[in-house]
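Notes taken during the Thursday session

The instructor put the following on the board and asked us to keep it in front of us for the whole hour. The protein is ARMC2 protein. We were told not to look anything up and to reason only from what is written here. First, the residues (737 in total):
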Amino acid sequence: MEEKAEISKPFYVSSAPKQKTSAEIISEARKSLRTLKTQRPLTPREDHRKLFGPSSSRTPENRPPSAFSLHALSFDVPDSRPVTVKRLSPLEHIPKLPASPDNEVDTSPPLPKPPIDPMEVKRVSSARARLFKAASQGGLPPVIRPEESAQKNVFSKGQFRGSSPLLTEPAKAGENEKEVFSKKACENSVSSRPGSGRTQEVETEEETCYWNTKILPILQQLESTQNGSDVEYLCGTCVRLHGALQQGNMLERKCKKRATLLKALYRLIDIGSDQLSLQLAKLILALSVTGKNLLNVCKLIFKISRSENNDFLFENNSITDSLLSVVCTEDVFSISEALLYCMGALKFLSGNSTILKDLLNKGLVEILLQLMKKINDSNKLNKTHFSISGHLLVQLTATLRNSVDLPQSRQRFLCSGALPELCVVLEQHGSDKDICTNIARIFSKLSSYNDCCAALANCSGCYQLFLALLKKHQKKQDFVVRIFFTLGNLTAKNNNAREQFFKEEGSIDNVLELFRIYYELDMTSKASKTHLRVEEEQECVQTHPSEVEDVLIKLIRVLANLSIHPTVGTALATNSICVGLLVKVLEYKSIDECQELVINAAATINNLSFYPVRNSVVRAEQLHLAELLVKLLLSNNMEGILEAARVFGNLSQSKEVRDFIVQKDVYKFMVALLDAKNQDVCFSACGVLINLTVDKNKRVILREEGGIKKLIDCLRDFGPMDWQLASLVCKTLWNYS
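Then, after some discussion, the predicted structure tokens were revealed:
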């Protein structure tokens, strides 16, 4: 008799099973415990390109402006070359010299010259008068062809004196050219400004010739078209000028007439063409301007990049190399304001996928992370530059946020150690909502990929950091939702991550406090909607969750994923606040209002109901939960029906719930679900039915609703490809028989 009784023992999971290992619990009963997936929060697209967008926490008076005017007069002329630092002894008598408008032009008194022919004096005086007239009007002198120079002895070899960057003194009539070169070369070895300690180099013969024959003609072509009537011609001329300077080794600060050159370029900015201004900016940066001029040229590029219509100007343009070279500066805070506008331009441009690909190939991610490390290291030492550091990091993190959209950037982030460095930024600037939101967006994007998710999980202290920031920025929805999305990704596949997060002091309490805050916000929002007329409610049907609902979706997903770990799942199942809030979600929110929120709440209850601990709050509330689940079964939402069936599969291990299922005709739903063409739905329905057949008086219900035939149909349709479902059907038939 004992053997016969043992053979006929029904199949079902005991309500008090023996203690299982973690691995056994996780792998047991297909989908008894499962993680949840959700969509990544959408990164809003800003309509207007600004240094700090409309959602910035910075007030207008506490942030640099995005709008400003720039003209030729905004630039300093000249941008001086470095000079020798050797000080000369002051003279007892300082000669009175005319003030020079250009401090790169030597103002030392002219050296003695041999007497010249009176006719030559007249000719030179006329030429000089024309030069000064042109200079006073901002013009350049007429170009002199090499053959004319040789005939008139105006640009004879070695005659450049340095007293004027554009005109030289003539040689004495009949003086041997070779002797002149020798004499003038000695005279022009070094010219010093009396009493100033500044030493100015003098052009060599080759430099003078190259300037006069290659550079000056191009400058005069630019001068002659200053009305901007032909922008394309001016742009082409700038390209030729750039090439000529490069060929003559006159870029950076190597050109002796650099001041004259820059003055001519600055003047062209007033034409107001973005296309031309970008060419000018590239050339000005190539001349290694500093100080105010570097700031203004970066502002100029920033201003051009603010218009999305100008993006094509930056495509396949080496101006991006110039911007990246500014970012690579060693002394960050000596050019911090210029760097800010340079970073702002890169932020705008990185929003264009074509330009972004080009920037990534030029090392954008690596360069930005080097800059970030410099800023972090500086802030560790002292907080002198903390404010401007914050402004810079807003632009930098926004650019990195844009760059993670391209798949090829992710490996660059991993190889450059970006994730730990970003955590350092969060530690140092945890009160800066703009920086925190940008980094939260980066983490939410990267954590969607397994390799990046694993790297972030290995960042020591990241969970403690996230919890501290969640507490600090509780009401900042766009930050909170992304941190919970990231935590949901971290805990989706990594059991160590679940355990580490749970062990952080106050972790569950902080999460549940945010659950309460956003639940109350959602209730308040729902109450305000009840005042709408029916017509208005119909017009306001949501296609996407509200901001508050989205936070709740991501937060509940974290709880569901954490509950996969047996220690955490048991703790949550016995936590009255946790279960109470989940029940409230099912009470006040219909699946038609927000499908994902309701399904996530039901799925989390399903996970928690898996743990049959003595003081389980889920078990204590099982009849109330069963009533709420009936609402889901009556909905037209198949996902909601499936989730309700899954929870009933766990709760029906209790005789009280099995009685409820029969009394409320819930079993009829389960039998009907066997007709579904979905294997998961059939599996969940079978799970409830196998528990019902434990009670002898309930086995007859399978025959009443044609359940036996439907079970055999499931076995025929799904059995050959799904052994787990086939096994469950056979166990149900065994119990019935």
